[in-house]
Amino acid sequence: MEKNSKIYVAGHRGMVGSAIVRELRRQGYENIVTRTHSELDLTDQKAVEAFFEAERPEYVFLAAAKVGGIAANAAQPADFLWQNMMLEMNVIHSAWKCGVKKLEFLGSSCIYPRLAPQPMPESCLLTSSLEPTNEGYALAKISGLKYCEYLNRQYGTDFISVMPTNLYGPNDNYHPEHSHVLPALIRRFHEAKMAEAESVVCWGDGSPLREFLYVDDLANLCVFLMNNYSGDETVNAGTGKEVSIRDLTEIVAEAVGFEGKIEWDTSRPNGTPRKLLNVDKAKGLGWEYSIELKDGVRMAYADFLSHLDSDSLRSK
Hints:
By secondary structure, the chain is of the alpha/beta class. The protein has helices spanning 15-26, 45-55, 70-75, 77-97, 135-155, 181-194, 215-228, 245-256, 280-285, 293-306; strands at 7-10, 32-33, 59-62, 102-106, 159-164, 166-168, 199-203, 209-210, 212-214, 235-237, 243-244, 261-265, 274-275. It is built from 10 helices and 13 strands.
């Protein structure tokens, strides 16, 4: 990308999209096009086609998505499948029709099989069944990835995809039921601290292993890949390190300053037992993460506090 290239970031108000915009500006890219949901409904095919015809972006980062944690995915599988399929197909298709030079599609590590080999290489995609609790979302993301691959194969486009591990950081969603595990824990421990509660109840038994990547590290990789990678196969985005949910709760409790007891509700689902990405491909391209988990959690909590009394905190 040239510094004056016209770049469309879809989903710029979300955690990932806003981080990509920050990273682009940090690197000197200023010709950035964005639209809010009220300005452009990405599930509306005609509206998306009209936008691309009018704006003619040269590069596209597709970070828009309907996202949520275990509870939201399990309760709304039809919504997660439909909304994500519609918006990504509309954007990718219009990008192809309007001759976009390069598109980068943002997915999720949940595209990989529930019992995939650990750490999960990009090549394990579609080798066995998915995790049932987020199957709708995963199927939509797999479809977006495959559509990029098929357009490359059939029409010679340069559309790539990146599959992040669990993300956290500025502009996260802190909804008590619909957020992902780390922001949910930040809110839960903060509220317990404020209420001077004796204990906090967490889901499952704490045994699942998870990998977490600070969103600004992901944004740095996204821009790096747009400038340095072309290929049909996706690229995993992660740290290559994992932590148990039990240990994660202790990291969050320490960052927040909660000193009470942590209890476990084993009637709640654990989700996938282990999700660690093989990040050899990204490393081989010359990229590596920079923010360690404990530092990132402290920064995420500081961001949470800075928006606590603001409408910008997505907690309701």
